[in-house]
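Can't paste images in this forum, so I'm doing it all in text. The chain is below; anyone willing to post the predicted structure tokens underneath?
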Amino acid sequence: MKLTKEQEIIVKLAKDFSLREVEPLAAEIDETGEYPDELVQKLKDTGFLGCIFPKKYGGFDTDYLTYAMIVEEVSKYDVATSMIISGNCSLSAGPLAKFGNEQQKEKYLTKVCNEGMIMGFALTEPGAGSDAAGVQTTAVLDGDEWVINGNKIFISSAGIADLYIVMASTDKSKGTHGISAFLVEYPLPGFTIPNFENKMGIRGSHTGELVFQNVRIPKENLLGKLGQGFQISMQALDGGRITVAASSVGLAQRALDEAVKYSKDRAQFGKPISKNQGISFMLAEMETKLAAARLLTYDAAAKKAAGEPHSHEAAMAKYFASEVANFVADKAVQIHGGYGYTKDYVVERLYRDAKILEIYEGTTEIQKIVIAGHVLKRK
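Text version of the structure:
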């Protein structure tokens, strides 16, 4: 695929930034599990946190394919850092840009684009993971305010974000049509974040629980229409799945590069292990699957950029690319042998980071349900 001159420039900026700022800190971020405040401030300065939004609000109007390439590039060096970008653009500020009214966008989207404000997307609950329709958090209108009660789990940027899109039931009798979306600032009375997850991978991306106890927000903080929350969530997840696929491609590319380098440097039986057919066949399979994953990801991103339906393509890209990332990371560790199991080599971290790619933004199994649904609708 030939990139345009503009795409080449933007992708090079992302690569240069990642090499200069992300790569030197990636191992430390993983080891400590601390949120990389200084790095995120530099991310804000690049404008990547709001790059896909209109120039009117301070964004760059970057098309979705180019944006996916940015995420891919950053993911080569640290998936947690790329998650901070994609969590803002795809899942959180993305719905605000599409469904928000002008007043909401002027108030909040301009802060995302111009100040790098971090946002969070709060859908998942203890009883509503893959079953996104099972939301139990409620929002009740009381005069000119909505009163929110409930709790959310596994929320990215918990405790870091200044603004969350919160899904809550406004009419349980209507099922998915009774779920609405709300813009909830943090902090507010009754809005607490009691704990954070100690994760296996992507440790620099904070994940935690949100608790709402009679949290009051202005009536005008309803996002979109009443009962539109489930639709907003599904569209947000479609965009998010493309960026998870892009993260998967970036991670897999780094794992393959590390495996190739190591196989050339490491000698056994008097020759580099890359000369052994067993190793070379692994590399061939890794390369081929990665190329296919990249094409699926770019196709989904291009369709979204063109404003075409892309739910099917997003699900296929997310499903396939995330599994490829796990496959390639696994083989990279195997090629490194015992060294691959130590923290001295980056493939150990890549192996741990890869697993979440098959889980968040809809598990592999959920993607198969989505894909099958599209297939079975054909005449």
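The radius of gyration is 21 Å. The longest helix spans residues 229-265.
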